[in-house]
Write a structure and sequence with these properties.
This protein has 283 residues and is an alpha/beta fold. The protein is built from 10 helices and 10 strands. Helix 9 packs across helix 10.
């Protein structure tokens, strides 16, 4: 298992190419975010804002709560009915789960998303819907396009039918069990998040800090990973580079005096954009 240096802002796992002068927003992919049931719209908006700040050409937010018509803080986000996400312009990555809820309607949306022929990232409530649902798990395993899951230890435990303590006791082995169960590239979140896929050895992250144990951090991470994948990175590279960037942004926010106590997920986004442009774009 690769362990990165523990001090300094070491080189990121992968980089994006420089953008040519004649670039068009369609060159940088589309990200869709499905979720935001009533009372949980903030989750999809955080993910959408992170995806936009990290370079996705277009970001569509499919809210289950139809009362939300615009994100006043980021009007560049395209808020749409959930069905709009079933026909994203390609290349694309669809994130399913932030604030999705566990209602029957949420399960039906997840069932509609999993057969799509572009990348899908399953997070948050969508992971809990998957747990113990053989039909949904079969749809996930049958996918030919890139698939990612991003569980924290509690979600991983529910998927595996184990306790969080068992997951934490041997995290690399738990990641491999998750990969075999789902067929997806796996981000096992937590201190020193792990990333692994069927083709790659387990990679361990060293960025991040305790201030990131706060609401909405996973939503921001999902948006970052989706943006990198939509711009052309492989699922494994997008996952580990997104984890690296997310943690490095948290570290930068703490150095700026925003934490660790009281650090908010939304405060990571401008730091992630700055670090992406500083470290992740080749000349």
């Amino acid at each position: 298992m690769k362990t990165m240096p523990t001090s300094g802002l070491y080189p990121p796992p992968a980089r994006l190419p420089a953008r040519p002068m004649d670039s068009h927003k369609g060159d940088f992919g589309a990200v869709g975010i499905l979720g935001g049931a009533p009372g949980m719209a903030g989750a999809v908006l955080l993910a959408g804002r992170a995806a936009l700040a990290c370079g996705a050409g277009r970001v569509y937010v499919g809210l289950l709560d139809a009362r939300v018509a615009v994100d006043a803080g980021t009007p560049e986000l395209m808020l749409a009915a959930p069905e709009r996400l079933l026909a994203l312009p390609r290349p694309a990555c669809l994130v399913a789960g932030p604030g999705l809820g566990l209602a029957a309607a949420a399960r039906e949306w997840l069932r509609a998303v999993l057969p799509l022929e572009h990348a899908v990232l399953v997070d948050a409530d969508a992971l809990n819907l998957l747990a113990g649902d053989d039909a949904l798990l079969a749809l996930l395993r049958a996918r030919a396009a890139p698939s990612l899951i991003t569980p924290h230890p509690g979600e991983a435990a529910r998927l595996l039918g184990e306790t969080p303590a068992a997951v934490q006791a041997e995290r690399p082995a738990a990641l491999r069990r998750l990969q075999r169960l789902t067929g997806a590239c796996v981000v096992l979140k937590g201190a020193h998040s792990l990333v692994g896929s069927a083709e790659d050895e387990v990679w361990r992250n060293e960025t991040g800090n305790p201030g990131m144990a706060a609401p909405g951090m996973g939503d921001v991470l999902a948006g970052i990973i989706a943006a990198l994948l939509a711009q052309g990175m492989s699922a494994f590279d997008a996952a580990r580079t997104g984890v690296w960037l997310h943690g490095a942004a948290g570290d930068a926010a703490v150095r700026a005096g925003l934490g660790p106590v009281g650090l908010a997920a939304s405060e990571l986004i401008p730091h992630a954009r700055r670090l992406l442009n500083q470290y992740l774009v080749t000349d």
